[in-house]
Design brief:
104 residues, mainly alpha, 3 strands, 10% strand
């Protein structure tokens, strides 16, 4: 499963708003969940992305779609936070899960 690059950042923002002494436990739970979901993190270079996708989706969302399409042969599943990459991935035939489906 490929996480949306903003997922960890967004989770971090949520964790920072919690009680400081409990943050380590929350980060540990997030890490354990990612390990259990067999998360396969990756990064992509701006210049490797399809220009049309970047212009239409913005860089972060385009990078998610780009990574998913690049790994299409491995049948990736994208974990996303926003609707735009979720919609684009589904339109491109990439299996996508919204974060709220995981934490609900």
């Amino acid at each position: 499963m490929k996480p949306d690059p903003l997922i960890v950042t967004e989770i971090g923002a949520w964790i920072q708003r919690t009680w400081k002494p409990g943050q380590s436990d929350i980060w540990r739970a997030v890490r354990d969940k990612f390990v259990a979901m067999k998360m396969d993190e990756g990064a992509i270079k701006f210049l490797e992305m399809q220009f049309e996708l970047v212009a239409d989706q913005e860089v972060t969302d385009a990078s998610v779609v780009h990574l998913a399409l690049e790994l299409a042969a491995r049948s990736p599943k994208v974990l996303a936070l926003d609707t735009a990459p979720t919609t684009e991935c589904k339109r491109s035939g990439v299996d996508t899960v919204h974060l709220y489906e995981v934490i609900a």
